[in-house]
Amino acid sequence: MMKKWTAPVVAVSLLFSVVTPVVAAGNDKVKVKSVEFFGMDAPQTPEQKNNLMYSTASVEITYNNNSKQMFPLSYETLYRPGDIIGGKTTAVTTYANGNVVTKSNGTPYVSSAPDMNSLLRVPGMPDHTYYLINHYESFPKNENGADNPGSMGLSTVVLDPAAGKLTATDVKPIDFSAVHGIWKPCAGTLSPWNTHLGSEETDPDARAHEANPETSATTKFMRNYYQDPTLIGNPYYYGHVPEVSVNADGSTQVVKHYSMGRMAFEIAKVMPDNKTVIYGVDSNPGGFFIYVADRAGDLSAGTLYAAKWIQTGTTDGGSANLEWIKLGHATDAEIGQLADTLKFSDIFDSTNDAVKGKAEGYTPVKTPANGKKVEWLKVKPGMEKAAAFLETHRYAAYVGATVEFNKMEGLDFNEKDNKAYVVISYLENTMLAEPGAPADDIQLPQISAGGIYEVNFQPNRKTRDGEKIESHYVPVSMAGMLMGEDLAVPDADGNKANVNKIANADNVVYSEGMRTIFIAEDSSLHKNCYTWAYNIDTHKLSRLVSVPGGGEATGLQVLENVEGYAYLMLSAQNPGYVGYLAGIPAVSNDVKK
């Protein structure tokens, strides 16, 4: 998610670098027993509030011999977007022909909005060398006012095995010309089979595009990307999960998974069966979806399901049981062919006349499309599959799934406890009681600061219609776990939410070795956004990093042991630095003394 920002900014990427500790003599190796973070205060000085991306937090490691060590966390710089690495400018975008997009003075457009990071290693690479995939969610508009293409970048990163220091030695954009370009890439994950699963954060409204295709956002985008003023855009090419494969030589292949549906993806998390995927969706309102692939490790074909919220409580963010509705089964190839040829009016009959709609058998829905207004729809004969996979939110609401979540963003999975942690960034709007709305499944008290929910799973559940879901990872209930706190009156620093609690979490990642959820904020209720650590056993919340005012923290990835070091990847948009936070020992294996 990216909020509006108008001041000149510089982007940030952070990593937790970890130093292997020295422990008591006489032990060849010990194991990490527990990890406890000690948080930092909120920024106090104007310099801290406005200019610094910093940490004064620390971490205490307890080992299985009951010895303890405290490690201070400190920040080190990797690079800043716009810097030159290996003769190339970081954080640039390209046209479809591969040329870097430049201003009339010849300088490249540089993104101040990096998001996801995936640090990965490919067999055949030199020792201590890794690739880092970054998302760049947006770029400044070009000099004619059109949106510049989004971008993903591939950096080469070398690890110093003696100190754990990371150094970027090369950068280049990833080529998306084979899939019509990349549309506002947001969060992402590294798949279990070592590919990068990204996201396109918005799904352009095909109904609005069809009403005025010459001026639509997708037409402007495609004309700029392909440098062809005669093109008419196609909204069905955008709003998908892209998958990037990286080879040892740095070459890449990209696909978009049309069979996973089309929506405002925040993140797609693959479960331990390598088949089931749960989605975070950055929509207001939005749904909760799972996808079950036909084959493990292959997301090119599968079945898509949408959740129905059956509310069971209203306190502390509320709680519910979840029922599942099958939307359909499809392959990338067949939905890709439909995307090439169909318009919105080929899939739906529609009207905004409620009385006429009722009389003619239309169904009212309220989705992010059509300006969140109620629209009345009827699926045309034989178009159910096209509706399910190209108009996923509209069709989910049409068949009775809950499309009322307000910015269900990042999520991650705790395999040992069989739980997921899901962000609801704002408990507002459609998550409150809405008398007269087409559907009103969610009726909760308002918490503008939002929160994180715990989701429970069971295997091989059935849909609402009694059909078995072929997955061991079906969400069956969810409840508020860690909530923010709105302030009736802003505090002395102007914070509108309690500064010692989370506000408008954006992304989360979970570390099993640390039993800790790392939380990145994107909030206007806090004057500074923070990254937090939350221990799921002790319930201790610790502030780890502060972002300069107006910026957001996002792009999390946790790696528990990389050559004896651990890293928490963290991007910060507007402003920041590219770097890493040093301090925590590797936790996933034995630690040598």
Automatic annotation (TrEMBL):
It holds the Pfam family PhoX. Residues 1-24 form the signal peptide. InterPro entries: PhoX (IPR008557). Keywords: Signal. This is DUF839 domain-containing protein.
